[in-house]
Write a structure and sequence with these properties.
Blueprint lengths: L9 E6 L2 E7 L3 H4 L5 H20 L3 E5 L2 H8 L29
Amino acid sequence: MADAEREVWVYVAHKDGKYAGAISGTLDVALQHKPTKAEARKWKKEVAKFCGDFIADGFTITPTYSAEECEALTKGMPMWKRPAKAPAARVTDTPDLLEGASS
């Protein structure tokens, strides 16, 4: 069966061999019932936002089609962490722009 015909179990976001996050492809498992059309539409938007946000930040999104496939993909991947930002350099020798201004 081609991937397009199968239902995605979970979308996995990863970068540089590190796991960043995942989102279920459907609501069936979480809700434990077949979602309504409105619930399904809302979930599709959540999935699109999740994937789009990660893609915009340079992550790869890989669809998996079973718990086993997801486990095989993420096994041994450390958790991705946002790099620490270096503190902004403070300039201490700037002239006072208001010094000598007449009132």
